[in-house]
Automatic annotation (TrEMBL):
Cofactor(s) it depends on: heme
Family: Belongs to the cytochrome P450 family.
Subcellular location: Endoplasmic reticulum membrane; Microsome membrane
Record-linked PANTHER family: CYTOCHROME P450 4C3-RELATED, CYTOCHROME P450 FAMILY 4
Function according to Swiss-Prot or TrEMBL: May be involved in the metabolism of insect hormones and in the breakdown of synthetic insecticides.
Native organism taxonomy: Eukaryota, Metazoa, Ecdysozoa, Arthropoda, Hexapoda
GO molecular function, one term: monooxygenase activity
Keyword annotations: Endoplasmic reticulum, Heme, Iron, Membrane, Metal-binding, Microsome, Monooxygenase, Oxidoreductase
Protein name as it appears in the record: Cytochrome P450
Residue numbers binding heme: C145
Cellular-component GO terms for this entry: endoplasmic reticulum membrane
Amino acid sequence: MFMQALFQATDTSGLTLAHTFTLLGMNPEAQEKVYQEVKQSIGLDSPICYTDLPYLKYTERAIFEAMRLLPVTPAIERYASTDIDLGNKTIPAGTNVLVSVFNLHRSEAYWKNPLEYNPDRFLPEEVSERDPYAFIPFSGGPRNCIGMFVCSKRQLFLIWYNF
């Protein structure tokens, strides 16, 4: 169990970083903003400290946008233990439900120009206007991924290290 969790944590972080670097490479303006933020906030020659991470706001948004466009887990499965009323439809108890994170993160119902890479979608004022379940790279609710609390901080460190 521990080894599986360790593999999942490193595999998902590695893929997220690969996706982030790919999207930054395809969007030079965003890449330059990340570079300048790291350069101005931390410097290119100084060692990074955990206390530096809160200053990398744009970098964190760039990672979240990569997670939105290219989620590592494209779908989430859940089991309906009770009937779930959706208004005009009911999901009966005992049904396995598959949520397409990939499609949700690209839905025009929640995202303006959903195929465009735009880290500013994750500005606080943008996030507060959006349904909290429109962005679920770590799943959602009480059974979401425990890695969500450390994932973005570790990825910020790795992005800084690679610049």
